[in-house]
């Protein structure tokens, strides 16, 4: 933790009371001039600090950022998010997380950025990641499971994010198999799960989470304006991003642990109660074929069962799903 971070956390912990510049200088063993320089730099990050003669500095307002300083006081987890690597801008948190995981980053490490310049979707598609308006994060987990069970973490994550959004906003999102969260039919969240494993052992799973939070419609690239939405667009209010991050991590830990301990059955029930896919007529586009039919349900392994018009039932492991309406 740097000197600047120490000064900031002292100001935050003072809860509106003045903090003496001399006291800060004494405690941190640096000059008053250095304190002043750090305060200027904190102000450049969007914090508003008032200086009161003979009394000291008061923190007047905090910008909406997803810094560790803002997330940690709201975080109620044992391991997830206890180690946060924060960026104001980066190419993709998923790429940084993959490197860190290879270098041995611990279970629960989070890479989070205010902005991504090359955010990734599945199959090398791009993910629109406007600065300071969304949650763009990757969570490194190291569960003790074999690789064939890793894909289900996408469904575990969807349930966790869904629950967190409901709790913070009162909106009721729905999960579209396997990895989209929709509100009023538009995409508010994408999940990208990547695996580092050998044949029979998982080294790490990297869960990439993108949530559109405070964007206006015009913030989205024109090409996705008709399919994307943000929490603010849906409920008309700004959402506290760091609180939502903390809640997502809380439920991801809770449901991740539940999955590792009890298997997929309890997650399946939660997933089913929030999904908008089952019972619908859908089109599933896969790498080599496109199928149409009625989504019957998910199996105990999270595979989507599709009844084709011929009556044949097919298990879908991975696809892009287009909802065609009721069956
Ligand atoms: P996906 O392949 O299911 O969805 C990508 C598609 O979604 C795009 O082709 C586009 O049509 C649409 N899209 C792009 N950006 C947005 C957006 N902001 N909102 C709604 N729709 C959009 C989903 O892939 C997985 C996305 C994971 C993103 C996270 S962010 C943190 C981490 N880092 C990173 O680079 N990716 C993950």
Task: Tell me what the structure shows.
This protein has three domains: 3-61, Winged helix-like DNA-binding domain superfamily/Winged helix DNA-binding domain (Arc Repressor Mutant, subunit A), CATH 1.10.10.10; 68-273, BirA Bifunctional Protein, domain 2 (2-Layer Sandwich), CATH 3.30.930.10; 280-326, Roll (SH3 type barrels), CATH 2.30.30. Helices cover 31% and strands 28% of the residues. It has nine helices and 14 strands. The chain has helices at residues 3-13, 21-28, 32-44, 68-71, 93-102, 152-169, 231-235, 241-262, 265-273, and strands at residues 48-52, 56-61, 84-87, 110-113, 134-141, 174-176, 180-183, 186-198, 201-212, 280-285, 290-298, 304-308, 313-316, 320-326. It has a seven-stranded mixed sheet with strand order 3-4-5-9-8-7-6, sandwiched between helices. A five-stranded antiparallel sheet has the order 13-12-11-10-14, with no helix packed on it. A hairpin with a 2-residue loop joins strand 7 and strand 8. The site of ligand BTX has 26 residues, from helix 5, strand 5, strand 8 and strand 9.
């Amino acid at each position: 933790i740097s000197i600047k971070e120490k000064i900031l956390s002292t100001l935050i912990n003072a809860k509106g009371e003045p903090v003496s510049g001399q006291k800060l200088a004494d405690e941190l063993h640096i000059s008053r001039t250095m304190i002043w320089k750090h305060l200027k730099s904190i102000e450049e990050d969007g914090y508003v600090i008032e200086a009161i003669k003979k009394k000291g500095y008061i923190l007047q307002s905090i910008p909406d950022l997803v810094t560790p300083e803002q997330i940690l006081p709201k975080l109620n987890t044992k391991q997830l998010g206890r180690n946060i690597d924060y960026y104001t801008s980066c190419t993709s948190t998923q790429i940084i997380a993959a490197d860190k995981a290879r270098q041995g980053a611990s279970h629960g490490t989070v890479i989070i950025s205010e902005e991504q310049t090359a955010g990734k979707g599945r199959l090398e598609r791009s993910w629109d990641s406007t600065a300071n308006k969304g949650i763009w994060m990757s969570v490194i987990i190291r569960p003790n499971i074999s690789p064939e069970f890793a894909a289900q973490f996408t469904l575990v994550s969807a349930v966790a994010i869904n629950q967190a959004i409901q709790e913070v906003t009162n909106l009721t999102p729905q999960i579209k198999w396997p990895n989209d969260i929709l509100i009023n039919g538009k995409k508010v969240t994408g999940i990208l799960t990547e695996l580092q494993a050998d044949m029979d052992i998982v080294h790490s799973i990297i869960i990439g989470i993108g949530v559109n939070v405070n964007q206006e419609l015009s913030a989205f690239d024109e090409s996705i304006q008709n399919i994307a939405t943000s929490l603010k667009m849906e409920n008309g209010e700004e959402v506290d991003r760091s609180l939502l991050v903390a809640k997502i991590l809380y439920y991801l830990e809770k449901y991740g642990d539940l999955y590792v301990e009890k298997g997929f059955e309890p997650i399946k029930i939660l997933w089913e109660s929030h999904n908008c896919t089952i019972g619908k007529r859908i089109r599933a586009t896969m790498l080599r074929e496109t199928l149409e039919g009625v989504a019957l349900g998910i199996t105990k392994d999270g595979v989507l069962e599709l009844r084709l018009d011929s009556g044949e039932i097919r298990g879908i492991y991975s696809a892009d799903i287009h909802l065609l309406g009721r069956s």
